[in-house]
Amino acid sequence: MTYSEVIKQDHPEGTMSVKAFKLVSAVEREMLMGDKAHINIECIECCGKNLYIGTNDCFIYHFLLDEKISTAGKVTFAATKQLHKYLGFKKSVTELKAASALTRLLVLCDNTITLVNMMNLEPVPTGARIKGAVTFTLNENPVSGDPFCVEVCIISVKRRTIQMFMVFEDRVQIVKEVFTPEQPYAVAVDGYYLCLALTTQYIILNYNTGISQDLFPYCSDEKRPIVKRIGRQEFLLAGPGGLGMFATVDGISQRAPVHWSENVIGAALCFPYVVALDDEFITVHSMLDQQQKQTLPFKEGHILQDFEGKVIVATNKGVYILVPLPLEKQIQDLLASHRVEEALVLAKGARRNIPKEKFQVMYKRILQQAGFIQFAQLQFLEAKELFRSGQLDVRELISLYPFLLPTSSSFIRSHPPLHEYADLNQLTQGDQEKMTKCKRFLMSYLNEVRSTDVANGYKEDIDTALLKLYAEANHESLLDLLVSENFCLLTDSAAWLEKHKKYFALGLLYHYNGQDAAALQLWVKIVNGDIQDSTRSDLYEYIVDFLTFCSDQDLVWKYSEWALQKNEEVGVQIFTKRPLEEQEKNINPDDIISRLNKYPKSLVKYLEHLVLERRIEKEKYHTHLAVLYLEAIFQLKSVATDNCTETTELLFKLRSLLQKSDLYRIHFILDKIRGTDLHMESAILYGKLEEHEKALHILVHELKDFHAAEEYCIWNSENRGLQYRQRLFHMLLSVYLNTGTSDCALVMAAVDLLNNHAAEFDAALVLQLVPDNWSVQLLCPFLAGAVRQSIHTTRMTQIALGLAQAENLIYKHEKVKQKGTPILLSDKKVCQVCQNPFCKPVFVKYPNGGMVHTHCAANRHLNSNMIHRSSSSSNQT
Amino acid sequence: MKKPDGKVVLLGDMSVGKTSLLHRYMERRFQDTVSTVGGAFYLKQWGPYNISIWDTAGREQFHGLGSMYCRGAAAVILTYDVNSLQSLTELEDRFLALTDTASADCIFAIVGNKVDLTDDCALSPETEDENRPEKSLASCGSIKVRKQVRAEDAIALYKKILKYKMLDEKDVPAAEKMCFETSAKTGYKVDYLFETVFEMVVPIIVRQKAEGSPQTVDITDYKPAKRTKSGCCA
User: Fold this and answer.
1) A759 within domain boundaries
2) pLDDT one-digit tens code per residue, A418-430
3) CATH number of the domain bearing residue B192
4) Do A232 and B68 touch (CB under 8 A)?
5) C-alpha–C-alpha distance, residues A52 and A613, integer Å
6) What's the alpha-carbon Rg for chain A, to the nearest Å?
7) B229 to chain A: closest CA residue
8) In Å, how far are A395, A421, A433, B10, B193 from A398, measured between CA atoms?
9) Chain A contacts of B65, Cβ < 8 Å?
């Protein structure tokens, strides 16, 4: 017969099938029967390299099967005939099963199972046999635990009877006989569980407990049942409507059924595939997704069995082997036809069939390949997940995008390639929209991975690529990237930024790489309009800020000039906002001042900074600032007649400085304002010189500002005591009264002063000054206050006097008490210091009553010690 | 393969829309389906649990498989077509008996699908928006009588099921709560159906786990000494 492989389109989506198996001839008919047409193959068994064939003319053939793999990977089998043996009946050999541990072949012929030697096919000498078997099966999950024993289950010729046997090397032993509700037609065993095809249904029967479980109904009259153990506690059954049903020993289905054709003859398992045979085809379904994967035309097949992973199919005349293609090859085929989902399911399913290390390498690669397939279809979410789980070297992805990898990168794409694309242009076929989407994806992907382990070892490549993408796309994150920690390679990135006219960003890159000079040069050019980059509208302020925090003095000097020219008031911030530490350490204020001389506004700001903010106590700065204020005021006054707000503000600042500071050169300033209308200022200056009379004179007569005069008295006497204050107020009163002219306003001012500040005056002195013609009423508040004050003082003094007298009395009392008792000196009285008697009537008596010699008391320190010691010693005795 | 913690089975006559309901819920879309062969299942992650949802074949041919699919089920969703009284009757006549193998504390939901086909106003395009199902229900409430199967019929069936199972109404969720009307085509109340069922299944899973019930057996760590629980009709 001839066979050829046909790939059938059998998926609803119309996808291509997998090539999972290849059909290879193993034993040709000539080797078996030559031209004797009546001889048919009835059954086969394969154990290791041994292939046994049972025929309808009661022969057993033994072949050795040699697998050969050509250099091209093509698998062929060569069968060498070892023996053939006639069993001596006129019946077919219906079943063969090898028990390799016993080197026995179990042969079912004429309802009897005989044991023959696997090598020479001779029956065992004991003649051990099982009689009355319709069919039999071996328990592949034996319960006895004896390695030199196989468990055999037979369907007996007796009605509704199953028997279990233990078969040893040369004897058999019945273990159990169970009866079934209906006649069984097929059986499979796993442990104590029998899976049975009865007349009308499939059941699970535990032969140990006798408990049975219905699976599902099935009509054995119409179709041949199939019961196949596919793994621990799981069976594959032929179900209604051409279904391959899975059932566990608990009677449940854990996998969805596979859909075979209606007339399946046999089924075999080769993970992850279920192979089925019908009149015309061998079909291959995946247990992982239940889909049909492959169809091989095969006519007149009547046996399909798997033996230790080897799937063998036979017609009446020949034996063929279904050689599984390597899983990797299958997966690659699936990937090649972009069937990612199936490829991954297959790969995952293969996990337990492949050594762990090998699997991991393979699986990673598959995930990566799958990722690129999804990527090419712009399924970015899926692609990202696959890249992540496949631990893709990110550069593989970057390298798809032209020019993104730095020229210095040592990256070479993996071989064999993970995908079929040369670059993004090929992948998108020039579609700009797709290209943009791909770039956007790479941006987000690189941004995500750059701070993870994935980036280790090639952070430069990733960051440089990200910079290029951002720059090209005009993405705002470009700046964030450059101002935070990054590994962008300078030369590559600089060229790219320049190309895309991202000069501001380029400056940031230079700065990050310690090239502040280059950065500043670039930015200044932008501000000056020599080059165009509108990234920042406030670039000038940015530069000022940059210089403020720049520790390179040369750069600061170089560019501060430029900054000041642009804007004096903002430019000076370079110096005024500079961190204090930096200011104190590195830059001499005098240098700055000499530089700022050209820029008066800046100079004022800077001096204000020194004097008012930093409170530097140097006469030079204080005087300088005062002079500058003055000059500015004169300047303004010369142009404008009215006092504009600017002048007012300056005057306020000047006054505040003159009042609060004690450091400026008073006479120098006084000279400057002499002859001008800055009366208030002169008054302040006179005040500083303690020439209060002059100052008050100006305030009262020149300015006629009585309130200011009072204020003057108050602030000039601050922290200087009551007397000083009284002196000032008296002075002011004198100025009001001793004018010669009787100016009514001055008189009123004097009255108000007295009435409002009664406490600041010595009433007695005031009364001498007050003109006689003033009424008492006029000065009533003052006088009342003064009298009250005077009385208060009197009383306070009386109290103090009384208290002092009382105290004096107490001391007198003490004195009398001390004098009261006479002290008798005798021989028995001894000095507490030297313990000698007193020889003279002179002694010292301490308040506590202790008496000592005068000379002993002379050294008080020693004395007190002695006293202490003597008292403590007396305590001890 | 992830081991499911609980099982939910969809039962009902052919072409009432079992596959479409499941497809709408899992894949978020409606598409023409072909007649289900044998059965299929999905795994749904629900909180910490994996729930397997079995879609069964409604065709008479596969009827025999139903018992096996239902074995140990924590919930059975009995599905009918609101435009076919026959499909409701079939639930009682043919499908109810299949649930004998389900878990003893199995919950039942009765679902009338294809409400979009009722000749009322209906579930105009706005119902595509699954967030506003209540509104559309209210807007077409009065014309529902034109449907072949009324909601009361489903409730009556639910009570019959309780009687059949010899369950007390007090011990099980209320009939009104367990009878649904859905449209797989528009998505109307599909999420609500499955989520309601899952919420009720979780306590059953917890109980089964606590009891170490062998209804779902982990074939990877089986101990031979363990006995199967006998089926109720064995």
Assistant:
1) yes
2) 888 888 888 888 8
3) 3.40.50.300
4) no
5) 106
6) 58
7) A250
8) 5, 12, 18, 48, 46
9) 216, 239-240, 243, 245, 257
Interface contact B226, partner A, CB < 8 A:
no
Q: Do residues B121 and B143 touch, judged by C-beta distance below 8 A?
A: yes
Q: Is the domain of A354 the same as that of A434?
A: no
- The reply to whether B230 falls in a domain is no
Contacts of A358 (CB under 8 A, 6+ apart): none
Q: What is the ipTM of this complex?
A: 0.80
Q: Is A231 in CB contact (< 8 Å) with chain B?
A: yes
Confidence at residue B178, expressed as pLDDT on a 0 to 100 scale: 92
CA angle B225, B230, B234 (to 5 degrees): 140
**Percent helix / strand / coil, chain B, rounded to 5:** 45, 20, 40
Test B38 with A191 for CB contact under 8 angstroms: no
Residue B140 has pLDDT above 70, yes or no: no
Q: Structural domain of residue B57, as residue ranges?
A: 6-221
At B205 the three-state DSSP class reads: helix
Residue B211 forms part of a structural domain: yes
Nearest to A333 by CA among A346, A320, A323: A346
The number of residues in chain B equals: 234
Flag whether A641 is in a domain.
yes
Look at chain A and report how many structural domains it folds into: 6
Tokens matching residue B113: 């699908």
Q: Give the one of B215, B220, B231 whose C-beta lies nearest to A213's C-beta.
A: B231
Least CA distance to B73: which residue of chain A? A252
A685 and A751 in a common domain:
no
Q: What is the pLDDT of residues A499-554, one digit of tens each?
A: 999 999 999 999 999 898 898 898 989 888 888 888 888 888 898 888 888 888 88
Token digits for A838?
Answer: 């007193």
CA–CA gap between residue A86 and residue A89 (Å, rounded): 8
Distance CA(A247)–CA(A230), nearest Å, equals 10
Q: For residue A239, list chain B residues with Cβ-Cβ distance below 8 A.
A: 38, 65
As a whole number of angstroms, the distance between CA A612 and CA A652 comes to 14
Query: Does A269 reside within a domain?
Result: no
Cα three-residue angle B67-B68-B70, rounded to 5 degrees? 65
Contact yes or no for A240 and B41 at CB 8 A: no
CB < 8 Å to B217, chain A = 233, 248-250, 252
B228 and A239: CB-CB below 8 Å? no
Residues A400 and A497 in one domain: yes
Mutate to test the interface with B, among A252, A264, A288, A346 (most CBs of B within 10 A): A252
A385 with A334, same domain: the answer is: yes
Distance between alpha carbon A164 and the CA centroid of its chain, in Å?
63
User: What's the number of domains chain B is made of?
Assistant: 1
Q: Is the overall model pTM greater than 0.80, yes or no?
A: no
Which B-chain residues 71-90 have CB contacts (< 8 A) with chain A?
71-72
- Judge whether B222 and A233 are in contact, CB under 8 Å: yes
Q: Tokens in use for B117?
A: 């086909």
Q: d(Cα A343, Cα A355) in Å, to the nearest integer?
A: 19
Per-residue pLDDT reduced to its tens digit, A134-148: 999 999 999 988 889
- The CA-atom distances, in angstroms, between B115 and each of B111, B118, B119, B122, B193 are 10, 5, 9, 8, 14
Centroid of chain to Cα A23: 54
How far apart CA A578 and CA A683 sit, in angstroms, is: 37
Residues spanned by the domain of A766: 708-804
- How far is Cα A653 from Cα A646, in angstroms, rounded to an integer? 11
Within the 43-72 window of chain B, which residues sit less than 8 Å (CB to CB) from chain A? 57, 59, 61-62, 64-65, 67-69, 71-72
Please enumerate in sequence order all residues whose Cβ is within 8 A of that of A395, keeping only pairs 6 or more positions apart, or say none.
Answer: A405, A409, A411, A458, A461, A462
Give the HSE-up count for residue A52: Cα atoms under 13 Å, Cβ half-sphere. 30
